[in-house]
Amino acid sequence: MSSVLRIPAATPQQSLDYLQAKLAYYTDAWDLAEDLAQRQPEVVVIDARAAAVYRAGHICGAISFPHREMDAVSTAQLDRSKVYVTYCDGIGCNGSTKAAWKLAALGFQVKELIGGLDFWKRDGHPLSWGDAPGEWPVAAPDAACGC
């Protein structure tokens, strides 16, 4: 018997439901870069790492908001009509998950960036340095996602 089919495949409807739910929780670097390049105002990117590592390089336009500082008081200024995309270093770091969890617990809509800053850099998307979020470059790289 097939090792793959030892556990039967999901029905098409089960797959649809699961995959739609999965996409509700995550975004990837290419989709986020496209939204940032188009200056989509309903998406806000949060770097959930410590401020010192944010200064050393972060996604253009991301705000520094370490997950350890998130609570009802510190998030009071955030706009609840926005969707917040959280990220950290990468798949070996759970800071983005902690940030997304805290924001969701406080009533905010959230998604996590798959692969964090590591995948962002691998895909060649622009970075900013210092304390300011930075501006998206006028002419973003012309690379196309192979997905």
TrEMBL record:
UniProt-listed SMART domains: RHOD
InterPro entries: GlpE_sulfurtransferase, Rhodanese-like_dom, Rhodanese-like_dom_sf
Transmembrane intervals: none
Domain Rhodanese stretches: 39-129
Protein name according to UniProt: Rhodanese
Species, as recorded: Pantoea conspicua
